[in-house]
Every structure is written in structure tokens, then in C-alpha cells.
Design goal:
177 residues, alpha/beta, Beta Polymerase, domain 2, 4 helices, globular
Length: 177
């Protein structure tokens, strides 16, 4: 099964919640879904016998703060956060990239982390990946069983992989630069 066939299955099942796809031009073809349908789509991808995406290889958060002029002209990107899910079906030997795009700040309020539903109920390993994306990119995964920092200390301020992150000059009396 190829990405076009998977996209067709998702469109048939979920309709307009399947926002887009990039099967031809992208180095890594992907399908984008809206955040409201994410868990249902993931459950379908995991459980449907034609797909059986039983493995979440990786989940990463990407910050698109300033639109790259080249990408803006090509894709119309505005500042946003993407969560990218790298999935594998061991049974069918197929891979898929699934994306969710959200505004950089919840409700447009600076400092309010964007919210994406947790998929840890579908793939247990998402627990760790979502904690890392929360810690480093600042994505709140609603419904996560234990969303807290995993790499930085609990009292760390900010999220280090955000494009607007300013590294502190000092932390607990230790100079950083």
C-alpha cells in the first residue's frame, strides 16, 4: 500500500479532517490531519487490518517561527508548530509520516502552549516522545498520563528548541555563557 492509497482510506473514513498530503514533491511524503481527529485517525491506522501501523518510530515537534521566503512562496507557511509522527507497519512493511499543525500559542496568547491530544493510548512509547516534545518544544499533550519534563530540570524556564528561546545567562548560580 502506498501513501496515495492510505490517504484515500483516511479521506473515506474521516473526510475533511484529513487536511492535506504531500506525496509527490516531498522527500518524505506525509499526510496532515487536524488535531481534533488525531487520536481517532491514529487508532484507525493502528487497528485497521489493511494498515496495522503498530510502531511509532518517533514523534517530534517542529517550530516554524519565521516563514522561510522560499517555503512561504511554495507552501504558504505562517508561523506554527508541527507535530510529526513517524509510523511503521511491521506486518505490511510500510512507513508513514503523519502531521498535525497548530498555532505557536494557544488562542494566540503568547506563553500559552499549543495543545495536541496525546496518542499514548494508541502507542505506549508516545508517552516518552510526547514528554520530550513538551520539554524541548513546548507542546501540551492533552490526556497524557504524566506530562512533565524529561530532559531539562523541572524548574527550567522555557523550551530550548523554540526558535524564540533565549538561553539563560545563569542557572542556579552557574553561568551559561
Amino acid at each position: 500500500m502506498n501513501i496515495d492509497q492510505i490517504h484515500s482510506l483516511l479521506l473515506e473514513r474521516f473526510g475533511e479532517t484529513v487536511v492535506g498530503t504531500e506525496p509527490k514533491r516531498a522527500m518524505d511524503p506525509w499526510i496532515q490531519v487536524d488535531q481534533e481527529s488525531l487520536v481517532a485517525v491514529c487508532r484507525f491506522l493502528h487497528d485497521d487490518s489493511r494498515l496495522l501501523f503498530d510502531h511509532l518510530n518517533d514523534l517530534c515537534g517542529v517550530d516554524y517561527l519565521e516563514p522561510d521566503a522560499k517555503k512561504l512562496a511554495k507552501f504558504g507557511h505562517e508561523p506554527h508548530i508541527e507535530v510529526v509522527y513517524h509510523l511503521t507497519s511491521m506486518t505490511h512493511r510500510i512507513q508513514l509520516k503523519l502531521k498535525v499543525c497548530v498555532p505557536r500559542w494557544k488562542d494566540g496568547v503568547q506563553g500559552q502552549l499549543p495543545v495536541v491530544p496525546s496518542v499514548s493510548s494508541v502507542w505506549g512509547i508516545a508517552n516518552w516522545h510526547e514528554r520530550e516534545a513538551y520539554d524541548l518544544v513546548g507542546i501540551d499533550f492533552s490526556g497524557h498520563p504524566n506530562l512533565r519534563r524529561i530532559l531539562c530540570p523541572e524548574d527550567w524556564s522555557g523550551h530550548a528548541l523554540r526558535k524564540d528561546y533565549e538561553f539563560p545567562l545563569e542557572y542556579h548560580g552557574v553561568r551559561g555563557r
